[in-house]
Design goal:
This protein has 411 residues and is mainly alpha-helical. The chain has 21 helices and no strands. It has helices at residues 8-13, 23-44, 52-57, 61-95, 101-124, 130-137, 140-143, 148-160, 162-166, 170-173, 180-192, 196-213, 217-234, 244-266, 282-313, 315-321, 325-329, 331-346, 358-383, 388-398, 403-406. The longest helix is centred in the N-terminal third of the chain and has 35 residues, at 61-95.
Length: 411
């Protein structure tokens, strides 16, 4: 009979201990969550469901135009990028903690529970992203056999090239959809009312429609998960100070590449363009434009990642950025509570504020909700080791708590 170390299995299946937590990663997750809130409020405030004429009739229309452009260009795709990279990074960190099948089984259990949480969340709001993380996270298990270099390369191709290839045949295989303006009008009417049943029915209809309309989202998320897993395996974020020059180079390269791509997209041939790049015209130009559109949020998100790391490594700015870490430690709780708070504020079943204050109101609500979550996260973590949803998720994942688990915090 072969004797095994007494606590080996427990160490493999226990959550990441507090001493192994990386505050930089928690702060990054909090930063990403701020962007996610701002983007999600575009829908949760019902502003995104308003017809164009009604948006332009709002008193904040002038400011809304520029805030919408800023959100679409610099926040929307980058928030998904950062959040997905960090999820993939967490996968790599978990799988590196042991080489037996126990870690894999626990990881699968975690994802199945996350899928359940995501489905319950989607019953309230159609924009849930947790379902994608759970389902696509399972694909990281066989893909983890690849080297970090190949994993990152394949991830980039999945984000940039795969959607273009799928575009040639996949849309024709999908079910026919209700006209977008009709769907938005039906959703706006239901969400603005105070009938819970109508809200749930409209949310389900909206969810089914958007899963078809945004069929490309799984490729975006999967590619970012793969790149994040490659970064997590390399350890460049866990030991960021030791890789300071790498992060400097990454920030400079990705920033320059992002600027070049955004300028090219800004000067693509269009009816209202005052400068146009002729090589972006024609069929080949349209293909190149699609590739640039797919690459832009990924490159900009990686530039944000590098810039945040460099700021965090500087003592002066770290003192300010550290307040994001408690929010990031409770990312699941805060992500879900953002939906509940937004529905309570904007939907008819809540305060019924709706989209009347436009993008300017969305910006104000973002700052107000996030500030409240930042204060609450600090207060909660002073008395508990992890957020309430994180604790539930961990408890269901690991079963009966061992002495090792009792001394740990959420990852």
């Amino acid at each position: 009979m072969v004797l095994r170390p007494p606590c080996r299995d427990v160490e493999l299946i226990a959550p990441i201990p507090e001493r192994e937590r990386v505050e930089l990663i928690d702060a990054l997750r909090g930063f990403a969550l701020l962007g996610v809130l701002f983007v999600n409020l575009h829908s949760l405030s019902l502003f995104g469901l308003l017809p164009k004429a009604e948006r332009e009739a709002l008193p904040t229309a002038g400011v809304d135009h520029w805030l919408g452009w800023f959100s679409d260009t610099f926040v929307s795709g980058t928030s998904i990028t950062l959040f997905s990279l960090l999820f993939g990074m967490g996968f790599a960190m978990q799988m590196q903690r042991g080489d037996s099948g126990i870690g894999t089984r626990i990881y699968v259990r975690r994802l199945l529970l996350l899928l359940l949480i995501g489905l319950l969340h989607a019953a309230l709001w159609w924009g849930d992203i947790l379902r994608y993380y759970a389902a696509l996270g399972l694909l990281l298990i066989p893909l983890s056999r690849l080297s970090s270099k190949w994993l990152a390369t394949l991830g980039a191709l999945t984000v940039i090239v795969l959607p273009l290839w799928l575009q040639t045949f996949l849309p024709g295989l999908l079910p026919k959809q209700i006209i977008s303006s009709e769907s938005a009008a039906l959703s706006l009417s239901a969400f603005s009312g105070n009938d819970w049943g109508a809200v749930f029915d409209a949310n389900l209809a909206r969810d089914l429609r958007m899963r078809i309309a945004v069929w490309v989202l799984p490729t975006y998320v999967l590619g970012r998960l793969m790149i994040g897993a490659a970064l997590g395996r390399s350890g460049v974020l866990q030991q960021a100070a030791q890789h300071h020059h790498l992060w400097q180079r990454s920030f400079v390269v990705m920033s320059l590449l992002s600027v070049a791509i955004l300028l090219a997209l800004a000067f693509r041939p269009a009816a209202d363009a005052w400068i146009a790049l002729p090589w972006l015209d024609g069929q080949n130009g349209r293909w190149l434009t699609s590739l640039l559109r797919n690459a832009a949020p990924l490159c900009l998100g990686l530039a944000y990642l590098g810039g945040f790391v460099l700021l965090y490594l500087a003592p002066a700015s770290r003192r300010f950025l550290r307040w994001l870490a408690p929010v990031g430690r409770m990312a699941l709780t805060n992500y879900l509570s953002q939906t509940l708070l937004s529905i309570a504020i904007f939907y008819g079943i809540g305060l019924g504020i709706g989209p009347r204050f436009g993008m300017l109101g969305i910006l104000f609500a973002t700052l107000l909700i996030f500030a409240a979550q930042a204060v609450w996260s600090v207060r909660w973590l002073e008395r508990h080791q992890q957020g309430p949803m994180e604790a539930l998720w961990r408890r269901l994942t690991y079963g009966r708590r061992s002495s090792v688990v009792d001394r740990t915090s959420s990852a």
